[in-house]
Design goal:
It is built from 11 helices and 24 strands. The protein is of the alpha+beta class. The chain has a 10-stranded mixed sheet, with helices on both faces. This is CocE/NonD family hydrolase.
Length: 526
C-alpha cells in the first residue's frame, strides 16, 4: 500500500462565485492518476475521510472529498437536492484542470453522496468511468412520499440532522441525537407543519418545502431534483449496494432496472442491512475497490462472475444470480380468507372484515424502513393485538418456502372518509409465536369513487425463506405512525391542524373481491 498525502480545504469555485471546500488525498509522489470524487453534506473529516479517503488513495487513486454547499466551511446555503447538478459539474471541471488529474475519474458514496453522483453522471462525459453507489437512488421524492403518504419520521429526522450540522462548523446534531429529537417532536401533539419547531426549535426550509410540494413529479419543484429519467443515459460502469431494510431500496432497484433496460450491466448487492447500519461499511469498501480497480486500472481479477449478489434472510445465505428480478421466480397469490386465514386457495363467500382508524390515536409502527433508525425486523405481536390492525395467517408450512423478488398487495377496501391509507405488512411467524416483519408498504387514497375500491400496494421487495413449521402472516391497517404521517381522513392539506375524521374501513375477501398479497415464489435452492 502507498503512503498518502493530505491537502486540506482546497477552494473549488462555483459559477456563482461561491467556493466549496475539498480535501485531497494523494498517493505519495503526486503523479497523475485516476480520481475518485465524493461530494458530501456531512463533512470531510473523521472516520469517513480516514477510511475511504486514505483507503482509496493507498491503492493509487487521487481522492477528493468535497463539502456540499452551505456546510462544513463551504460557502452558500444548503438547498437540499437543489444545487448538486450545477455544483457537481463545476467540481468536475475543476478536477480536469488539476495537474494531478489522470484523465479519468469515478464517483463514490452512500445515501446523499449517491444522489450527488446521479446528479452529475448523465452529463459528465466519457471520462467518468465508474460509479459505486450505496443505499441511495436517483431521486428522493418517492421515498419522501411512500405510496403517496408523507414519510414523516425520515423527513423530519434528516432535516433536523442537517440543520444541526449547518448551525456551526462540525455541527452538534448527530445520527444519534436527531432521531431522539424527532421522536420527541412527533409525540408533542403539534400539527405536522409545526413539528420542525419541536425538533429543531425553528422552521426548517426543506421540511416545509416537502410539505408544500407533494409527490407529483410534474410539480416544478422537483424538476432539478429528480434524475431518474436520465439513469439509462449513464455510460459509466455502475455498482450498487443496498439493504433489505433500507428506505431507498425500491427506488434503487428502479435505477438498476433502468440501466438494464438501456443495455447496461450494473452490479447489485443487497444484504440484511438498514440505512445507517455500520455492517455494510466493509463490503462497501471491498466492492468499490474491486470496481474501481477494474474500470480505472484495468484489473478485473477481483470482480465476481455473476452481477447480482443477494442475502436470503431466514436461510441466512448469500446467493449469486445473473439478474434482478431473479430468473425463474413466479408470482403466487396468498388470499385473505374468512376467519383471519391466509392461503393460496381462492376465498369463499364472506362478509368483509372491519376496523376503525382514529387519527387522533394513530396506529403505530414497530420497526420498518426509516432513515436514521434501526430498521431490523422486530416482533409484531404487540401491534397485532390492536383492534385497528387486521391479521391474516397461513397454516404452519409443511416445507420451506423461499420468496425472492418484488412484493405487492391487491386489496378490495371501502373507507368512510374521503382520504385513507392502506398499510400492508408481511411477517414470518416462528413456532414460538414471534411474528417478525419481513416487508411492508403503504398506499394513500384520496378522493376516487365511492364504494369498494381495488387498491394496489407496492411493498418492499424480499429475499426470504419461510421455514417449515413457520407461518406467513399479513397485516392490513390504516396507519404506521410516525413512519408515515397520520391521515386526518378529510383529504385536507398535509400540514394543517384541521379536523380529524375517524375512518371505518372494510377489507373484502370473497370470490368477487379476492384480496391477496402477491409473493415471488422461488424454485427450491439446491
Amino acid at each position: 500500500m502507498r503512503r498518502v498525502r493530505l491537502h486540506r480545504d482546497l477552494p473549488v469555485p462555483m459559477p456563482d462565485g461561491v467556493r466549496l471546500l475539498a480535501d485531497h488525498y494523494a498517493p505519495a509522489g503526486g503523479e497523475r492518476a485516476p480520481v475518485i470524487l465524493m461530494r458530501s453534506p456531512y463533512g470531510r473529516r473523521g472516520l469517513f475521510g480516514w477510511y475511504y479517503g486514505r483507503g482509496f488513495a493507498r491503492q493509487g487513486f487521487h481522492v477528493v472529498i468535497q463539502s456540499c454547499r452551505g456546510g462544513f466551511g463551504s460557502g452558500g446555503l444548503l438547498d437540499p437536492l437543489g444545487d448538486e447538478h450545477e455544483d457537481g459539474l463545476a467540481t468536475v471541471a475543476w478536477l480536469r484542470a488539476q495537474p494531478w488529474y489522470g484523465g479519468s475519474f469515478a464517483m463514490f458514496g452512500p445515501s446523499y453522496l449517491g444522489y450527488t453522483q446521479w446528479a452529475v453522471a448523465p452529463y459528465a462525459g466519457s471520462e467518468l468511468k465508474a460509479m459505486a453507489l450505496q443505499i441511495t437512488a436517483s431521486q428522493f421524492r418517492d421515498a419522501a412520499y411512500v405510496g403517496g403518504a408523507f414519510a414523516l419520521e425520515s423527513a423530519l429526522s434528516w432535516t433536523t440532522l442537517t440543520d444541526g450540522m449547518s448551525r456551526r462548523f462540525g455541527g452538534s446534531t448527530s445520527v444519534l441525537t436527531a432521531p431522539r429529537l424527532t421522536r420527541r417532536a412527533v409525540l408533542s401533539g403539534r400539527p405536522v407543519a409545526e413539528l420542525d419547531l419541536a425538533s429543531a426549535g425553528r422552521p426548517l426550509p426543506f421540511y416545509q418545502d416537502l410539505l408544500a410540494h407533494h409527490a407529483d413529479p410534474a410539480v416544478p419543484y422537483w424538476d432539478k431534483r429528480d434524475f431518474s429519467s436520465k439513469v439509462g443515459e449513464v455510460e459509466a460502469a455502475v455498482t450498487m449496494l443496498g439493504g433489505w431494510y433500507d428506505v431507498f431500496l425500491p427506488w434503487q432497484l428502479k435505477d438498476y432496472a433502468a440501466l438494464r433496460a438501456a443495455g447496461r450491466r450494473p452490479y447489485l448487492t443487497i444484504g440484511p442491512w438498514y440505512h445507517i447500519d455500520t455492517r455494510h461499511g466493509r463490503p462497501t469498501m471491498a466492492e468499490a475497490s474491486a470496481w474501481f480497480r477494474a474500470h480505472l486500472l484495468g484489473d478485473r481479477s477481483l470482480l465476481r462472475p455473476d452481477p447480482v449478489r443477494i442475502y436470503v434472510t431466514g436461510a441466512e445465505e448469500w446467493r449469486e444470480h445473473p439478474d434482478w428480478p431473479v430468473p425463474g421466480v413466479r408470482e403466487q397469490r396468498w388470499h385473505l380468507q374468512h376467519g383471519s386465514g391466509l392461503g393460496v386457495e381462492g376465498p369463499l363467500e364472506a362478509e368483509p372484515d372491519r376496523f376503525r382508524y382514529h387519527p387522533s390515536h394513530p396506529t403505530p409502527s414497530l420497526g420498518g424502513p426509516v432513515l436514521l433508525g434501526d430498521s431490523r425486523p422486530r416482533d409484531q405481536r404487540r401491534l397485532e393485538q390492536r383492534r385497528d390492525v387486521l391479521v391474516y395467517s397461513s397454516p404452519a408450512l409443511e416445507s420451506d418456502v423461499e420468496m425472492v423478488g418484488p412484493v405487492r398487495a391487491e386489496l378490495f377496501v371501502r373507507s368512510s372518509t374521503p382520504s385513507s391509507d392502506v398499510v400492508v405488512r408481511v411477517c414470518d411467524v416462528h413456532p414460538d409465536g414471534r411474528s417478525m416483519n419481513v416487508c411492508e408498504g403503504v398506499r394513500r387514497l384520496v378522493g376516487g369513487p365511492d364504494g369498494v375500491r381495488r387498491v394496489e400496494v407496492d411493498l418492499w421487495p424480499m429475499a426470504h425463506r419461510f421455514r417449515r413449521g413457520h407461518r406467513i402472516r399479513v397485516h392490513v391497517a390504516a396507519g404506521a405512525y410516525p413512519t408515515i404521517a397520520r391521515n386526518h381522513g378529510t383529504g385536507g392539506p398535509l400540514g394543517a391542524a384541521g379536523t380529524m375524521a375517524p375512518a371505518d374501513v372494510e377489507v373484502f375477501h370473497s370470490p368477487g373481491h379476492p384480496s391477496a398479497v402477491v409473493l415471488p415464489l422461488c424454485a427450491p435452492h439446491a
